[in-house]
Amino acid sequence: MEKVRELVWNGALNVQFIAKSNILIDGIPENKGIVNLRIPRDTYIINYLPLVLSRIRNVLKINIDDYTGQFWFEFKDTSIPWHYPMGVIYDVVEPEYLRNSAPANDDTTLNMWKLHLNYGPNIPHNLLPLIDGINQVEKYWMHLWKQACFILNGSSKQVMSVSMKDSQIFWNSVLLRRLDNFEHIARRIVPIKPRFVPLIVHRGLSFGEVNQPTIMTHKDDGSACKILDIFVNLSLERKSSDIFICQGIQIPLDMDLTAVYNNFMSFDGFLHLVLISETHSTKES
Amino acid sequence: MSRLLESEASSGSSGTDSDNSKVLDSHTPDNSVSRGQNNEIPSLALRNRLELYSRRLSQLGLEETPQIPLETDNTSLSQAEKEKIKNEEGPDVNSFKVKIKFQPIGSVPQIKPPVCKISATQSFSSIISFLRKRLRMENVYCYVNSSFAPTPQQNVGDLWTQFKVNDELIISYCGAVAFG
Prior knowledge:
Chain A: It comes from Naumovozyma castellii. The structure holds 2 protein chains of 2 kinds. By secondary structure, chain A is α+β, with helices and mostly antiparallel strands. Chain A is built from 11 helices and 10 strands. Chain A has a domain at 2-130: Ubiquitin-like (UB roll), CATH 3.10.20.620. In chain A, the strands form 2 sheets. In chain A, strands 2-1-5-3-4 form a 5-stranded mixed β-sheet. A 5-stranded mixed β-sheet of chain A has the order 7-6-10-8-9. Chain B is α+β, with helices and mostly antiparallel strands. Chain B has a domain at 97-174: Ubiquitin-like (UB roll) (Roll). Helix content of chain B is 38%, strand content 15%. In chain B, helix 1 (14-27) packs across helix 3 (42-59). Chain B starts with a strand and ends in a 6-residue tail after the last strand. The A-B interface holds A 83, 128, 139-140, 142-144, 146-147, 150-151, 155-156, 160, 196, 210-214 and B 144-145, 147-155, 158-159, 161-163, 180.
């Protein structure tokens, strides 16, 4: 399990940030507003905004030390939310890479996710406004952990009892990519045998369709719940082409939910699954 | 918003009636007019009764009489929200509704009635905007089970299913950060 956790934690995406021409100084070529980064899947994209801005500050119209509007990222002219893990957003908007792309170990191919950086006085309506910068992100993340803890333990006591010092180490483990520190504190919150699993099911190619089902780890007859049981829980008709993706990997439907959670849990305490169905694939084409 | 969040307490209880009477008395042009005098002024008494019935109807989530202006939640709704409510009243009129129990933290006033019903398909942001309008406060911080603040986009039905206590989702609210 530790090996899988390490692989999940170190999973990363190649991202190309392209500043929109309207936020660049007039006359500056567009390639001057490009930043290429390799970003972990298990983090928030907004955490990398200061780094991206610092790299292109000399070509931006906006003074990044003093601005009143909001920056946000877009993919194919759709604003992308910052409050889901980076890898989840990628799996939601680009699910077809699993079916169509070249093998990941092909040395001649490099998958690059192209995102545009935009700026405006008001943030698009589907995004959470960021008023307090990274501090707000940290608070938001901590509230998610409290919520996950409540589902796992029946109360948020385990998170509430984490000291200020440890909570800072916990958050820094996400920023500085320290898996040992993260696991050390996460294990104090996540019980060995939880009754319920904090689960969020996203629908492929759509940010609005999100379900947070209440799903037990074991059924009434004592048997372990499988990924397949999520269809029943969500009252969905299962099609043969339906697949669940987690951390960029297709999850077998007969896998125990607890095992999936323990191995693929996200850094916010939730298990994020992306459901890709045939209808979603045809929607894009 | 009264369609979004319907009053759980019905107007049948005598306590509610007396409360309403007090409110209505304060709204009459002349507060010094006694009940006996009201009988002597039929038009004033009739208006009071109409206002009382209208208020009861609005508490039940039914439409109030249009010619009597009352300070119901609908008056503070934007056109877009009214349209949204109107659309929901069509095919989705029988959608599942869940109970929300509001608990104030600190010096914030208790909203009345404290228990409301809301469609399970609504997002948590509708509860936040309801409280902001009802309390007339710029910022309202909401917490579930005095523990965590959900995301505004989270589905109320999902929250109710996961965190309900005695079939009620308990939402504490405050004018400042209460649980960091």
